[in-house]
Amino acid sequence: MFYRVMADIFMVVHFAWIVFMLLGFVLTIRAFFRPAFFDRWLFRTIHLVGIMFVATLEALKAYCPLTLWENALRRHYDPSHEYPGSFIIGYLEHLIYPDVSPAVVMVPTVLIALFILAVFIVKPPARFRR
Fold first, then answer.
1. Please, are residues 127 and 41 in contact by the beta-carbon 8 Å criterion?
2. Cα separation of 114 and 117, whole Å?
3. What's the number of domains the chain is made of?
4. 73-93 b/e with 16+ CB inside 10 Å = b?
5. pLDDT tens profile 85-111
6. Distance (Å) of CA 94 to CA 42, 99, 105, 107
7. How far apart, in whole angstroms, are the C-alpha atoms of residue 85 and residue 98?
8. From CA 105, how far away is CA 16, in angstroms rounded?
9. Burial of 111 (0-12, 13-18, 19+ CB in 10 A)
10. Cβ atoms of 117 and 49 closer than 8 Å
11. What domain range includes position 15?
């Protein structure tokens, strides 16, 4: 039971990371047009490093470490790796691991990472402009 709970916690953390990446993208677009709206250097720096990491993983066709750890925990819980989770966890799993071509995920991820990097360079947070 411990391994199942830990795997579910990893999935929720993974989902939170995805939301953070998407929210950061939206806020970066907003900050480009209204710099005073969102000029949080720590958030933007963590987001930049995170999205570059995600884009690198996608470009290398490597798995996210959170995915690897979650799968290892699920195997400890159930060697057949059948999904024994709840209704909500089942929907989270389909959001995090969509059944689409890898290019559908890789191309937008790399484009978003390049956009975030360009905005960070063109309009850096106030702390870095000083």
1. yes
2. 5
3. 1
4. bbeebeeeeeeebeeebeebb
5. 444 566 666 776 777 787 787 888 889
6. 31, 8, 14, 20
7. 17
8. 17
9. exposed
10. no
11. 2-129
